[in-house]
Amino acid sequence: MGHVNPTDDQLRAILSTSRTIAIVGASQRHDRPSFGVMKTLMAAGFQVIPVTPHETRILGRTAYPTLADVPEAVDIVDVFRRAEDTPAIADEAARIGAKALWLQLGISNEETAARAEAAGLTTIMDRCIGQTVTHLGIKRAAL
């Protein structure tokens, strides 16, 4: 049997207890889905860290080339990359001690899910974290 995403109640618990979300594949281009999701997560009160080697700042936040370069603890790694790129991202998310790996809408990879879950990460695939935060009404207290 393949990977099954957590229930809405489980997602609510993950999002309610998380503060910092790293967005791998973030972009400062307004027409990119990652840009809109970053704005949604920031508006909901999350500390959002863009991870991309192509930018230095996005929405006023310092961007880092890799997850390993992020100088603070990350709770959720949200991924905007091709499915074939995600197994290595799962390994890196585990190395930095993230609690969850979230693959955006349209992205799924069973190998990635298996690797992430074997490392103890809750794994969500083919679901938009921004839509989920809005749907579940998640709002973090001001940082």
Jot down its keywords.
143 residues; two-stranded antiparallel ribbon; five-stranded parallel beta sheet; alpha/beta; Rossmann fold; 5 helices
Question: Can you summarize this structure?
Answer:
By secondary structure, the protein is of the alpha/beta class. It has helices spanning 8-16, 33-43, 86-95, 110-118, 129-136, and strands spanning 20-24, 47-51, 57-58, 61-62, 76-79, 100-103, 122-124. It contains five helices and seven strands, in the order αβαββββαβαβα.
Task: Write structural notes for this entry.
By secondary structure, this protein is α/β, with parallel strands linked by helices. The chain has one domain: Rossmann fold (3-Layer(aba) Sandwich). The protein contains five helices and seven strands. A five-stranded parallel sheet has the order 2-1-5-6-7, with helices on both faces. It has a two-stranded antiparallel sheet with strand order 3-4. Helix 2 runs parallel beside helix 5 and helix 3 runs parallel beside helix 4. The longest helix is centred in the first third of the chain and has 11 residues, at 33-43.
